[in-house]
Amino acid sequence: MLAAWSLPCCFTILLGLLELCRAQYEHLGYPHGYPQGYPEPEQEQYSAPELPPDTPRIQLRLAGDKRKHNEGRVEVFYDGEWGTVCDDDFSIHSAQVVCRELGYLEAVSWFPSSKYGKGEGRIWFDNVQCTGKEKTLALCTSNGIGVSDCKHTEDVGVVCSDKRIPGFKFINTMANNVQSLNIQVEDVRIRAILSSYRKRIPVTEGYVEVKDGGKWKQICDVEWTKHNSRVICGMFGFPTERKYNARVYKMFARRRKPSYWDYSVNCTGNEAHVSSCKLGHAVAAKANSTCGGGTPVVVSCVPGRAFSPTPMTGFRKAFRQEQTLVRLRGGAIVGEGRVEVLKNGEWGTICDDNWSLLSATVVCRELGFGSAKEALSGGRLGQGMGPVHMNEIECSGFEKSITECFFNKESLGCSHEEDAAVRCNVPAMGFQERLRLSGGRNPNEGRVEVLVERNGSQAWGTVCSDGWGTIEAMVVCRQLDLGFASNAFQETWYWPGEVSADPVVMSGVRCSGTEMSLSQCLHHGPHLTCPKGGGRNAAGVSCSETAPDLVLNPQIVEQTTYMEDRPMFMLQCAYEENCLSTTSSETPASSHRRLLRFSSQIHNNGQSDFRPKAERHSWVWHDCHSHYHSMEVFTHYDLLSLNGTKVAEGHKASFCLEDTECEEGIEKRYECANFGEQGITVGCWDTYRHDIDCQWIDITDIKPGDYIFQVVINPNYEVPESDYSNNFMKCRCRYDGHRIWMYSCHNGVRLSAKDIGPLMSNIEVVHCIPESTSASQVASFLVMTA
To answer: What is the disulfide pattern of this chain (predicted)?
Structure first.
């Protein structure tokens, strides 16, 4: 009897201990705290609110100058009229009620004082006080509906989460005014129907389906327009739509009975998201579900050139930006970044005054992406250099280029702290499903594991760490949508992954940095070569949401250049640090070396501080100059002939990375004195003066003539940055044997022989212009001399 009782008792105790163990290790980076294979906790399911009979029937929407679709001014529809909500007594609890009533999982924040612009009409609610658990805003305590002493300068706005409530169902309480309501559904998708499209990545054609009440439903095409298709395609990362073979889909619809949504859709075509479109007429579906003689809505979208699928092999190309008048810089993933515009041959930024989702969508479509997911302001994705070309932009949403939008040409005074940026919708390529990080302390770090075909089945394996560096790590973090790489590791013994994934499945990986997935990088084929093997020696990464961005000020170089003949006996320390040309070893102490001197002012325009890769305990002490080197090579200085041949060079070790000066309101954090911490703070710059050792190129042996001067910061990519393309600066240089001139200095890509070909004949270099470029765009191009 005792044994019979003790068995279930012991079993119960063991279960309890198992729960304690599981709770102890919930922080180890498994999704939702659960190891793979464990069932996830059930998600909250939507249930239709049961309201008291005397509750005012209202509908809500988010309106105004929005910078993403899930935010805006709170507007209330009551008694046949749209109105607003006053910010008096409003709180995050009230915002929670608003967001959940609109079908979002929760509120993120709220803003007073008409942040999203002043509304019109009545102010329906004032002194709103909610607990956060009310089913509708009408149940919160207030002065009473329509009772307010506020003005529209006090209109409140909210920001809701991206996630929708599972099972959310739109309930219309305004049967007679349905066409004034915005679309509210749980989710939207394009479902490939034809077999020729089911295996394509990305999915570009199929039924448009909405998820309402937990069920996927088709939309009747009776009132469907091209504008609606344009909005849907933009949401899924495609710049435009095209015609499709309707006859095939009619045949399919006859074979399978559709399940239609209750409403039609009414978009103007410039919306960034379907939630900004209006509800159309209620669909009077017949008993045979023919939706009044129509069929389910089908869209066929045109992907940007970089995302165009190819038969069988699908997407193979690395991302290459099409040549346009606009580019994105400083973003962690493809389709996001600071907006820069080419004007008069010079790249500049856009001021964020009046920057909206509408204008951002024009930029995204112009670059071959879909509509804008978010319009960012305040230099959120780093600050640019050079001029601010455009301000107070107003677009209709149908322009082919942001340069066609109206902007205030007279408005001045914007700084780079106000640089505008975008996050665009890009096609779902499925890259994240073929790569993972394993064994890390959090989801942002770990051993890199790749899913590959092996013996007819798919298996996970590691990446050989030979030659693994920052550029490769950047591609991994981009593919997993984890931001920028903060470190690249060639040993991962401290991150034990699954033993079954220890074997190396990819070796010889070399990336250019523009790839969207690791498989697009150069790598060995089926014949792998990895002497160290996988397991503890496999490649690893750690990722970060932010990164620094170093940019050299070209004007300072141009203004401070001069030539000096310096006696050899004064250059002994520089000689020991290899800052002179090789012929200096034969120069007697009584002779001199001719030096091209200049100052370097290096700004950190990124989103995090620039810190040397090496820890302080490993910095190298140099007796001659009595300082520590935190990076052996921080900059390269090259003098090139017009055919790209290097004729003289210099280099600069980072003997002192510190904040020389900072922008107003930013405090210095790094100072080299007394073995202090080294780095460059965001918004600060480090100046290497022209009169310090090694801040030169030894030009003793070069002949008079025309040359190209080039500076490369962080040349070995030791420290991750958000944008390496602006680490290069180049100038035209003329030397007559007695004097030297530096001119036309500008930031740009590293010069090679193929880049310098046009310079040899001093011909004009004309930017390539796409065939579709309008006359007004062509007028904006400037023929640039070398």
So the answer is: 86-150, 99-160, 130-140, 267-277, 395-405, 511-521
